[in-house]
Amino acid sequence: MDNNLNICVLSFATGNIWSWAASVFKNNKEYCEKHGYKWSGHYGLKDPNRPTNWSKIAYILDEMKNGYDWIFWIDADAMIMNHKIKVEDLIDNDYDFAVSHSPCGWCTGTWFINNNNYSKELLEYTYSKEDFINHSSGIQVDAAFANAVYEKGARIIVHDQKKMNSLPPFRFFNKRNEFRDFTVEAGGFKHSATRKSFEENSFEKGDFVLHAAGLNNLGRETVFRKHKEYIIK
Description:
Blueprint: E1 7-13, H1 18-35, E2 38-43, H2 55-64, E3 70-74, E4 78-80, E5 97-102, E6 105-114, H3 117-128, H4 140-152, E7 156-160, H5 161-164, E8 182-186, E9 189-193, H6 195-200, E10 209-211, H7 217-227
Helix pairs in contact: 1-7, 2-3, 3-4
């Protein structure tokens, strides 16, 4: 992979999560400074007329106008834990996107977008899928993107989840041994999220990203505080 790529790491946070997101942004910005990437951290919704997660598509489309070769989108509840791993280790210019496969399907919480015309058109099409705006799956953007790819096609690298999107240790989801397997239906796709899949994809020291998806604000703050010592720089 070309080590001279112009790469942007992009994220946004809202005021209700800033008590813990500020430290995530600080850490992720330091990662960018280490590798010479552009950090672009934003505050507030890009599209206040849709649920929060849709603003990521609007932010990505806007950032694509700045001519970066690749954009690394990372949710505000995802912290880069291993600063020795480079974006270039996870992307390939022959592809349009790189994503990870979570128990609920492809995850757009951390993903890589090749800034080309086709990627732009596919993201615009994803954004146009209004039937997914309030989709009952709870993974509206993930579902819209997966279904857009199914309909239009795209060149996608699908990494194992722990390569770029590790979950919090399973105990954070299963405090009283109450975890139950569940199924997510997202348009043309159906995913079975099992206890085993959550256990297998739990963060371990050396993993690239710790993504505190599925936890409330207190849970996210606790996860990041307890794992701060595991950050590798």
